[in-house]
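User: I'm writing a tutorial on reading structure tokens. Could you give me a worked example: one chain, its sequence, then its tokens, then a sentence or two explaining what the tokens reveal?
Assistant: Sure. Here is the example chain.
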Amino acid sequence: MTTISKKLFGKASDGQDVYAYTLDTGAGVSATVLTYGGVLNRLLVTDKNGNTKNVVLGYSYLENYEKRGAYYGSLVGRCCNRIKKSRFTLDGREYILPENDKANQLHGGPEGFSRKVWEAKENADGSLSLYLESSDGDMGYPGNLQVKVTYSLRGRALSIRYEAETDAPTVVNLTNHAYFDITGAGSGRTLESLLWLDCDKMTDTDKELIPNGEILDVCGTPYDFTTPKAVGRDIGCDYRLLSYFNGYDTNYYKKDYTGKAAPIASLTDPENGLCMTVITDLPCVQLYTTNSVDEGAPDFADGARHTLHCGVCLETQYAPDAINSPEAESVILRPGKKFDSTTTLSFND
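And here are its predicted structure tokens:
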């Protein structure tokens, strides 16, 4: 039986109260979610030796989320990842979006879903649903969009279900941007984590991380995680754009994708065997390895320092800039249809 506790986390700059909800099953996993940005603020996991550690990077104070951004643990939308030149054409009409990543739009724009205060509802089954209304024209996107994201904790698995409906054709591509450290936030061993990806292809991009239309095989390259290897083993290789980006910031395609929920990635602590498996019904996952650090950025909770490569992001998604590619239909939501996707983080016993 999942229990939920609630406490005030802080007051947003616009005066709204922000709450922290903690879900706990008593099975060695608990998750704390904020109404600001739908942030997954803490994810405590007990390993087989009885040791409990936080495996996501999160701030202790609301002001750090508001001032620093970086999407730590937040819900991202309307459209995660990048849209080239901050524009797209839908049903013959061009839409111009506000830029926030050079000339491109990133993760829904400068005031995307990660910067909103969501309405929360505790459900009878112990899950937590967050609601957001995104009005027509919000960050340049057409249509009034109703969004619902539900965090559910069952045993040792945390599920995030994304639902959205619109009254006009629009673009939707939702994800959670948690920075994981399966070795424990603040351990200093992040790059020792063993990463497996059930993905044999990746998106080739330019130096602004905009897809160039090429899908590359990863087999035998530093981008190959089809056999588990340490995140840091090849991170310093002078290969393609690895050295330019100072690490991985790469969209991978799942092998033999069927549209049904299946494992796409896992992170394992080689020291104690604690493993997190990412299960999703989406076709892609963006691997990001915290490749830059802001000067003066505050440290995270649990004594975790804000350092290079201190977290690993596994953002389940549709492809970046899909709306400007042959994959456009994957991210177009129309009236009468529903965006409905679930990603689950499952931990071994």
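What the tokens reveal: The helical segments are 62-68, 242-245. The chain has a mean pLDDT of 96.
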